[in-house]
UniProtKB/TrEMBL annotation:
Protein name as catalogued: Molybdopterin synthase catalytic subunit
Classification via InterPro entries: Beta-grasp_dom_sf, MoaE_sf, Mopterin_biosynth_MoaE, Mopterin_synth/thiamin_S_b, ThiS/MoaD-like
Family matches, as Pfam families: MoaE, ThiS
The organism of origin for this protein: Paenibacillus lactis
Uppermost EC category: transferase
Length: 245
């Protein structure tokens, strides 16, 4: 007897298949993540190329190809991410990590509020990285960006980045705020605040945070131009969010 797996879809993959979720029938459970991708590719051949480069997430964590999907698991198919790719919704959405250091919101971001989260009287260095929407990329004019996120998993990944920083640069604090929905030209899409007793650690940790965010956090960005739009994924090399920097 077959069984049904609810699957969440995002960004260009959701557009290609025509839905943000599926009730997908498989012969039986458990099934491996790799087997699920093969069956999805057979069922949706037009999306097979995107499915092949996507990762299955099980219970909001990236899964290897041989990891088993059990009954009751939350399953999502995560297409390549690069600091964002997706059609954002216009309704107000906001969520933060339990400790308050990581925020995902459809509202405008506050640099000051993010920096305040890492303030420490014993830290001599504080940096803020602010990512904004640029108008021109070469000769291509961007009209606006649209961001979407798998919010609970994205918050977990942002928290992991903060923990990684604390482990690699002891005493260093990090807070990250990311916007979803429409982000117009000149507006802020991400704020990363880092503080540390010493400036070298601060610089290195800030760079690590943005690079790791682009690799692992399930937030998607759609560039909208005067004459079309495009989902933006990794710009170099194959995408593997399970490999930490």
């Amino acid at each position: 007897m077959s069984t049904t797996i609810p699957i969440l879809l995002f960004a260009g993959l959701a557009d290609r298949i025509g839905s943000a979720s599926l009730a997908f029938s498989v012969p039986a459970l458990p099934i491996t993540a790799g087997e699920l991708k093969h069956k999805l590719s057979d069922a949706y051949p037009d999306a097979a190329q995107q499915i092949a480069v996507s990762f299955v997430a099980i219970n909001q964590e990236y899964a290897l190809e041989d990891q088993l999907i059990q009954s009751g698991d939350e399953v999502a198919l995560i297409p390549p991410v690069s600091g964002g790719d997706g059609a954002g919704e216009q309704r107000c959405r906001s969520a933060q990590s339990p400790d308050g250091t990581c925020l995902i919101t459809s509202e405008k971001l506050s640099v000051e509020e993010t920096v305040a989260k890492v303030h420490d009287a014993n830290h001599g260095a504080t940096l803020s990285f602010i990512g904004t929407t640029r108008e021109m990329t070469g000769e291509q004019r961007t009209v606006t960006l649209e961001y979407d996120a798998y919010i609970p998993m994205a918050l977990k990944e942002l928290q992991q980045i903060c923990r990684d920083i604390s482990n690699q640069w002891p005493g260093t604090l990090c807070a990250i705020s990311h916007r979803i929905g429409t982000v117009d030209i000149g507006e802020t899409s991400v704020v990363i605040a880092v503080s540390s007793p010493h400036r070298n650690d601060c610089y290195e940790a800030s760079r690590y945070a943005i690079e790791q965010l682009k690799r692992t956090v399930p937030i998607w960005k759609k560039e909208i131009w005067d004459d079309g739009s495009e989902w933006k994924g990794p710009q170099t090399g194959p995408w593997d969010p399970t490999a930490r920097l």
